[in-house]
Amino acid sequence: MSTVKIAELLREAAARLPGEEARHEAEQLLLHTLGVERAWLFAHATDAVADADRQRFELLLQRRAEGHPLAYLVGRRGFWTLDLEVNVATLIPRPETELLVEQALARLPADDMVRVADMGTGSGAVALSIASERPLATVMATDVLGPTLAVAVKNAQAHGLENVWFRRGHWYTALGADRFDMIVSNPPYIAADDPHLQQGDLRFEPPPALASGADGLDAIREIIGGAHEHLVPGGWLLLEHGWDQGQAIRELLEQASFVEVQTVQDMEQRDRVTLG
Ligand code: GLN
């Protein structure tokens, strides 16, 4: 047994991580290592840490210092009202994507048995948030990758959501001949040669969840192109996208005869969701 106390270990760890969140992140990694709640940590600040725990914590700390995303190291991320499991097969849900959920809910009556498809569901963030807020809705969540879909299924089970269904497949092939009142997607939308893919969290996230062709719009073109075949008349299509893609996507939607086309901005006043 080492003589290092919890409080000391945390202090040292925080000093080794960059950024304003260092202290919070060190805490999260230690909570994950010890499998305890935050309150426990403070009640036991002067306890010595077992060597095995220290070693496991040290490994996580090193990975975090190398840039591995915190969400992957602790295997969880909060999104909307849900605590979700994530792993390297899933994109890490972003707060910006909550705008997509908000905009979807604004168009989904609570007292109707609407059908929604979330294409490229990843961890299930968008599909499960909608399903939890609209118990009468049926949400079909798709992803092309089996291991990714497995995470979404686990998340649905963990939250007891029985109104979500899962299908594996490439965009519309996963939907078969079904039609929906709404299709939502946070598809890959980054240009394949965008240097941001080599930076920050993006370096560690699944490339198929991020990049989509020379201008980043390949997936979005495909989704818009096939939407009419899978929407009921008057149905909605909502897409998340990059801050500089709003106009291009409005044009694509209008060319595909969508009406009431508009772009909604995120909290940073950047174009983020376009719908029609
Ligand atoms: N729908 C998931 C999310 O919003 C995954 C998106 C993706 O992998 N591009 O987090």
TrEMBL record:
The lineage of its organism: Bacteria, Pseudomonadati, Pseudomonadota, Gammaproteobacteria, Lysobacterales. Residues 105-192 form the Methyltransferase small domain. It comes from Stenotrophomonas humi. It catalyses: L-glutaminyl-[peptide chain release factor] + S-adenosyl-L-methionine = N(5)-methyl-L-glutaminyl-[peptide chain release factor] + S-adenosyl-L-homocysteine + H(+). It holds the Pfam family MTS. The keyword Chaperone does not apply. One of its GO terms (molecular function) is peptide chain release factor N(5)-glutamine methyltransferase activity. Keywords: Methyltransferase, S-adenosyl-L-methionine, Transferase. This is Release factor glutamine methyltransferase.
